[in-house]
Specification:
Layout: H1 4-24, H2 31-64, H3 70-106
Length: about 110
């Protein structure tokens, strides 16, 4: 079960990332732009998750051979943190996509809730 305090911390990080992104770049001009940015963040996060998975397999092999494998643990920890950071960026970009679509809707462009 995920603790409420942890979720609150994640939400704070997402909002901080969204604020930084909005200060640096304008809202998305289209759903195509939003999708491209979200996909990039998603793919980057999955690359890091794949590295965690590979490290976990290497650690398991080391464990079965009675080896400690501290290096793999350190790499998994680093890559896990990077995956989390990329996912925070992904979530922030989904929030930016919502803001962008809402702004375009307010300006009279067609949006739909699916």
């Amino acid at each position: 079960m995920i603790r409420e305090k942890l979720l609150h911390g994640i939400n704070s990080l997402v909002l901080e990332e969204l604020e930084t992104a909005n200060q640096t770049f304008p809202l998305f001009a289209s759903n195509h732009e939003a999708h491209a940015v979200m996909r990039e963040e998603y793919e980057e996060s999955m690359e890091k998750v794949d590295l965690v998975r590979e490290g976990l397999e290497l650690h398991w092999e080391a464990t079965k051979n009675n080896c400690i494998g501290i290096g793999w643990l350190e790499e998994m920890s680093k890559n896990g943190r990077m995956a989390i950071a990329e996912l925070i960026q992904f979530v922030a970009m989904t929030e930016k996509a919502i803001l962008s679509a809402s702004r375009r809707d307010a300006d009279g462009e067609r949006t739909e809730n699916l």
